[in-house]
From TrEMBL:
Entry keyword set: Antibiotic resistance, ATP-binding, Nucleotide-binding, Transport
PROSITE patterns: ABC_TRANSPORTER_1 (PS00211), ABC_TRANSPORTER_2 (PS50893)
Full protein name: ABC transporter ATP-binding protein
GO molecular function: ATP binding
Length: 300
């Protein structure tokens, strides 16, 4: 497939801090690509270099076969950018806001109104932006990034701070954007989001890419145990340890959990004893991959 973005060994340094340190990857046309990492991993700086907002100290970037830096005017109509923090013109309504963005690209007011409809904000068109909820403001921000019908969309933590319902609604919008043939590049702290939305991800830390691939492939490569949980008290913890000697057994008073790499005989043994109350079976997730690669320590 054709590569929309080619990043080759880029680096960015601020004094003694190496924010991006030899990053390389490609994003194919029509792909939903995620860049994941803890705070300070270099995700946003990498995105800003690709977008042409920041110059790399070394390495090269190609977007649609062109360099985005120095600020490439020819690329601007083809890309849409939704920044990490939404910032709107003061005192404008949602309609006035998107009409202002549309006018910068020579897009008609009718097309701007249609974009409001597509992101589910037609009924909020007359509402001033500061009165919008968090989810509505994020939808408007994405609408402004899409109003000129770009081929490539950058989304920097678009669901940060949203409640679960708003996040799920925004996921549907992001899927729709990608289904229309647009290439989407996403950064996010939410691993379930990346697992649900992205065709491929790159996990970054300390300015470097640690691992890349489809989420399911990365999870399968982890070789993590399957976690089998039943209601606490259904089976005594000591009895479970005796039955499943090679497994890790824990009981928090709510659930007894057996972590094993051979789940079939464990499930069979539980079934034989009628100990399946509250049964849940969970395999590894992208979060497990992330934590193994980046560690569990808190990043402020």
């Amino acid at each position: 497939m054709t590569s929309t973005i080619v990043v080759n060994n880029i680096a960015k340094q601020y004094g003694d801090v190496r924010a991006v340190d030899g990053v390389s990857f490609e994003v194919e046309e029509g792909e939903f690509f995620g860049i994941l990492g803890p705070n300070g991993a270099g995700k946003t700086t990498t995105l800003e270099i690709i977008e042409g907002l920041r110059e790399a100290n070394s390495g090269t970037v190609s977007v649609f076969g062109q360099s985005p830096w120095p600020r490439n005017q020819a690329l601007l109509p083809r890309i849409g950018v939704q920044l990490q923090a939404s910032s709107f013109f003061e005192l404008l309504t949602a309609r006035e806001q998107i009409h202002t963005f549309a006018s910068l690209y020579g897009v008609s007011g009718k097309a701007a109104d249609e974009m409001l409809e597509r992101v589910g904000l037609a009924d909020k068109a007359g509402t001033r932006t500061e009165k919008l909820s968090g989810g509505q403001a994020q939808r408007l921000s994405i609408a402004c990034a899409l109003v000129h019908n770009p081929d490539l969309v950058f989304l920097d933590e678009p669901t940060s701070g949203l409640d679960p319902q708003a996040r799920r609604n925004l996921w549907d919008l992001l899927r729709d954007i990608n289904d229309q043939g647009r290439t989407v590049v996403l950064t996010t702290h939410y691993l379930d989001e990346a697992e649900q939305l992205c065709d491929r991800v790159s996990i970054m830390d300390s300015g470097r890419i640690l691992q890349s691939g489809p989420p399911a492939t990365l999870v399968r490569g982890l070789d993590a145990p399957t976690r089998i949980s039943i209601e606490s008290g259904t089976l005594a913890e000591a009895q479970a340890r005796e039955l499943f000697g090679d497994a890790e057994v824990s009981d928090d008073g709510v659930s007894l959990t057996i972590a094993t790499r051979t789940p079939a005989p464990v499930l069979a043994a539980l079934a034989e004893r009628g100990a399946l109350a509250g049964l849940s079976v969970a395999g590894a997730t992208l979060e497990d991959v992330f934590l193994k690669l980046t560690g569990r320590e808190y990043r402020a």
